[in-house]
Amino acid sequence: MKKLDYPFSVEAVRKLKVGDMVLITGKLFTGRDAVHKYLHDGNKPPVNLKNQIIYHCGPVTMKDKNGKWTVTAAGPTTSIREEPYQWEVIRDYGIVGVIGKGGMGQKTLDACKEYGCVYLHAVGGAAQVLAEKIKSVDGLFLEEFGLPEAIWELSVVDFPVVVTMDAHGNSLHKEVEAHSKEMMKEIL
Amino acid sequence: MAKKAAFKKKATKKVSIKKVVKVVKKLNGPQQTIESLLELIRITSTVVPDDVFKAIERNAKNEEKNTTADYAMGIIKENIDLAKYKSQPLCQDTGTVIFYIYHPAGFHQTTFKELIKKSVTLATKKGYLRQNSVNSLTGENAGTNLGEGHPSIHFYEHKGSEVEVKLVLKGGGCENVSAQYSLPNTALSAGRDLEGVRKVIIDAVYKAQGKGCGPGALGVCVGGDRADSAYYAKKQLLRKLDDSNPNKDLDKLEKEIVETCNKLGIGPMGFGGKTTLLSCKITSANRVPASFFVTISYMCWAFRRQGIVMNKNFAIKKWLY
Fold first, then answer.
1. C-alpha of B102 from chain center
2. Distance CA A59, CA B130 (A)
3. B216 - beta bridge partners?
4. Rounded to an integer, what distance in angstroms lies between the CA atom of residue B20 and that of residue B23?
């Protein structure tokens, strides 16, 4: 088990390799479909994303009587939907990590290598285990997109992920796909 | 005098019972229904059914220790325990809310529909459901999980005297990898027979890798028109994972597909490993000579399905899974 601690950096993520099981401690920003399209359309992000990690997640959130937010469920959403936009966000805003599920395509893999970023796979559906690692909600941006689509600034401790695309051009998704394709050929 | 008083007493009593019954019908009936439905939603969202848990546990033991597959299965099991303990959604995507209601003749569907909507709104406020319903044209999210087609409600009249309500919460990730094939399929050399059906199902599992939150469970329909095929495929998700298909050919095919798919090496979350599929349930519907559709409804490991039998007062009498 490896550790990735805040503040994050290109140097730190370049040390990670496909297959590494990693515990992240620090800050995460959620961002999914609406946020990526918004940035792609040329709008500036409401927070500085330099050396930050973006999390493809639409959490279930509750506001208490004092107006304080808590996240009650927060698993990853399917990342491939952001494939047209992700490479630009990595290039233009300097994010060093993307957390999601299902992996991403060649454009993102190339951007990870070129600019220094990793794709970190969280266990899909594990909304409670992952919400448990969120210690506080520190900010809410672009609320007008609806709560699941907004940017949530979260502090996490020991958030569990697996590196499935590293900053050296390797992708576990490609490997598994190639292997399963061979197996399928044999079976069919 | 005594006779008159007794008569009066009797008359008063009669009126008061009627009144009470009316009041109960007006207030407690709907209130009890909402409470029962809310509890059904809570349990469905936060606890996986026994048959699903057993399948996950059995498969988790097969994974090699200290692999990413073993790690993923460990987190999945931990998540199941934690969601139940905290009474919080297993997955943040609480999905399309789909009700299947089996009722006796004379049942008032319109009233029941209204009570379902109230329960869904309440469940959303309590956080058992995420604000998950979006207007497809405007992008607006009313935050109630109500809207055109939401929740999805299916009524069936049955011969029994009780009301049964089954509920499936179908997440978007697994719905997106569900698929419909039209046979013959040249690319897969899949013809219009069970061998062709087998090929397209395996292809769907291959294509779903990494995206559908595996290990998955399949509901399949062979035949029907496009819409019915999708409907019947999804309805197969109401079957318990450890049951058998009464059709021997389909039963054989179901088992064979699970075995075959688990040799693909896709594994939990597509990390590689032995557990790709937990189950496969297949039904068929007649088709017209020109069409041959096979529809595959993919369900994630966070298989949210539950059901209740209601008593005459609409309280929960029995859990179905």
1. 14
2. 8
3. B277
4. 5
The three-point CA angle B150-A34-B87 to 5° equals 55
B68-86 and B50-60 helices, crossing angle to 10°: 150
How many other C-beta atoms lie within 10 A of the C-beta of residue A25? 15
Residue B124 identity (one-letter amino acid): T
- Sorted by where each begins, the domain ranges of chain B are 16-47+90-171+307-321, 174-299
B86 three-state secondary structure: helix
Interface ipTM = 0.90
Contacts of B301 in chain A (CB under 8 A): 125
Are residues A19 and A172 in contact, defined by beta-carbon separation less than 8 angstroms?
A: yes
Contact, A95 vs A28, CB < 8 A? no
Beta bridge partners of B76: none
- The angle that helices A106-115 and A83-93 make with each other, rounded to 10 degrees, is 10
For residue B19, give both structure tokens.
């009144």
Where does the pLDDT of residue B12 fall: very low under 50, low under 70, confident under 90, or very high at 90 and above? very low
Alpha-carbon torsion (B120, B126, B132, B135), positive or negative = positive
**HSE (CB half, 13 Å, CA atoms) of B313?**
9
- In the three-class reduction of DSSP (H, G, I as helix; E, B as strand; rest coil), residue B267 is classed as coil
Asked if the Cβ–Cβ distance from A78 to B176 is below 8 Å, we say yes
- Whats the size of chain B, residue-wise? 321
Residues of A with a Cβ under 8 Å from any B Cβ are 19, 21, 57-60, 62, 72-75, 77-78, 80, 101-103, 121, 123-129, 131-132, 146-148, 160, 162, 164, 172-173, 175-177, 179-181, 183-184, 187-188
Q: CA B21 to CA A69: how far, in whole Å?
A: 44
Total domains in chain A come to 1
CATH of residue A139: 3.20.130.10
For chain A, what percentages of helix, strand and coil (3-state, to nearest 5) are there?
35, 30, 35
Q: What is the pLDDT of residues B69-118, one digit of tens each?
A: 999 999 999 999 999 999 999 998 999 999 999 999 999 999 999 999 99
Across residues A86-112, what is the average pLDDT? 97
pTM, 2 dp: 0.90
DSSP H helices in chain B: 2-26, 28-46, 50-60, 68-86, 109-125, 172-176, 194-207, 226-235, 248-261
Amino acid A22 reads V
Structural domain for A63, as ranges: 2-187
Q: How many CB atoms lie within 10 A of CB B102?
A: 19
Interface test with A, best of B93, B135, B199 (most A CBs within 10 A): B93
Phi/psi for A34 (5° steps) reads -65, -40
